[in-house]
Amino acid sequence: WGEVNRFFGQDKPSFELLWDKEKLVSKKYGVFKFPESFLISPDGTVVAKFIGPRDWYTKASVAYFEEVIDGKRRATGL
User: Fold this and answer.
1) What CA–CA distance (Å, rounded) separates 50 from 74?
2) Which of 18, 19, 78, 28 has its CA nearest to residue 51?
3) Confidence of residue 23 (pLDDT cuts 50, 70, 90)
4) Residue 49 belongs to what H/E stretch?
């Protein structure tokens, strides 16, 4: 957890973090490159996969998620 704590520093995330030591989840989702991000629906379905680093704080990224949440856009990779 040392690396994770250093990454976040004093700004602790508002969401729960999980550590997959056996890499079972990465194998299940077919993760081969890091970082990879997934958009997962409330029922647990992966609706979008993003390979590589992303700046999630851009206006385009925020608009994308707002549209997906509002049902105005189908979730696909950015």
Assistant:
1) 15
2) 78
3) confident
4) strand 46-51
